[in-house]
Amino acid sequence: MQRRILGALAAACLGTAALTAPPASAAPAPPRAAVDYTGIVALSNCSGSLVRTPNAADSDPALVLTNGHCYEGGMPSAGQVIKNRASSRTFTLLNPSGQGSLGTLRATTMLYATMTDTDVALYRLNQSYASIRQTYGTPALELSLAHPTAGADLRVVSGYWRRTYSCDLDGFAYRLREDQWTWKDSVRYTSSCDVIGGTSGSPVIDAASGKVIAVNNTINESGGRCTLNNPCEVDEAGNITVRPNIGYAQETYILGACIAPGSVIDFTRSGCLVPQGS
Predict the structure, then answer these.
(1) 20 to 30 A from 188, CA-CA: which of 39, 86, 202, 230?
(2) Does residue 45 share a domain with residue 71?
(3) Is residue 213 domain-shared with residue 258, that is, in the same domain?
(4) DSSP helix/strand/coil, 256
(5) Opening angle at CA 113, ends 102 and 6, nearest 5
(6) Which of 63, 64, 68, 75 is nearest to 42 (CA)?
(7) pLDDT at residue 6 greater than cutoff 50
(8) CATH number of the structural domain spanning residue 206
(9) In this structure, what CATH number is given to the domain that contains residue 108?
(10) Domain assignment present for 13
(11) How far is CA 95 from the centre of its chain?
(12) Assigned domain for 23 exists
């Protein structure tokens, strides 16, 4: 998984846009959401995002999403679920260009963290969505409550590196195994999302809708088989497939459905599929 911090970034390449207008008879392309660094945060060791559900109230405490393996208390062991722990963790809120910081957000509570079935951590902040928007002019990203779709055009936006990866959603891994951890129904990227350490916790954004559909968490770095930093796919029959240099993310609709008014976790809500723990 991509927690540790690696070396310098490769230079980004800019493409050129076509200059010719479409034929007059051509139907206009549907509008696309602009994906920039709005709502993106950087952690001390990972990336993350300011998120809300479609039905969240502006007065609700704001939430930050990242990976379970980015939890400041250390990586949860297989089978472990951590809930409702006091936290004063800070997050650097980026400006839309990603070139500067708008300010520092602070948690009051680590609401939920696990590396079992999925790899997520959710923090509740000491400010509401309305307060953050008033202070910084920044809205939260919306969590999709639907299962993602194969072939979707994706953006993986890293607050730590201030780098955006573009690729397609290649498919889904029935089970993704890495060392002691197993994740269910993981998103598989096409090869251009060659994520690195520090990108852990980056939101995976559907470029068509602008909604968060997953959280980036790992890549097979060297062709290893089911080892740390070398996840493998396991199908329903138990067959193992290794895909060197292919990255993965964990779907977030199963956690988004658990978020109740007031920014609390309610495991009894319809569609809430994350492990409850003891």
Answers:
(1) 39
(2) yes
(3) no
(4) helix
(5) 60
(6) 64
(7) no
(8) 2.40.10.10
(9) 2.40.10
(10) no
(11) 18
(12) no
Length of the chain: 278
Quickly count: other Cβ atoms within 10 Å of residue 224's Cβ: 15
- Looking at the structure of the chain, the number of domains it has is 2
Rounded to the nearest integer, the mean pLDDT of the chain is 91
Cβ–Cβ under 8 Å, residues 21 and 218? no
Are residues 103 and 131 in contact, defined by beta-carbon separation less than 8 angstroms? Answer: no
In a domain, 35, yes or no: no
Separation between Cα atoms, residue 47 and residue 61, nearest integer Å = 20
Cβ-in-10-Å burial (0-12, 13-18, 19+) of 112 comes to: buried
pLDDT per residue over 136-187, tens digit each? Answer: 999 999 999 999 999 999 999 999 999 999 999 999 999 999 999 999 999 9
Q: How much is the pTM?
A: 0.90
- The one-letter amino acid code at 188 reads R
- Are residues 260 and 128 part of one domain? yes
Using DSSP's 3-state secondary structure scheme, residue 91 falls into strand
3 state SS for the chain: CCCCCCCCCCCCCCCCCCCCCCCCCCCCCCCCCCCCCCCEEECCCCEEEEEECCCCCCCCEEEEEECHHHCCCCCCCCCCEEEEEECCCEEEEECCCCCCEEEEEEEEEEEEEECCECCEEEEEEEEEHHHHHHHHCCCCEEECCCCCCCCCEEEEEECCCCEEEEEEEEEEEEEEEECCEEEEEEEEECCCCCCCCCCCCCEEEECCCCCEEEEEEEECCCCCCCECCECEEECCCCCEECCCCCEEEEECHHHHCCEECCCEECCCCCCCCCCCCC
Q: Which domain holds residue 44?
A: 40-142+254-265
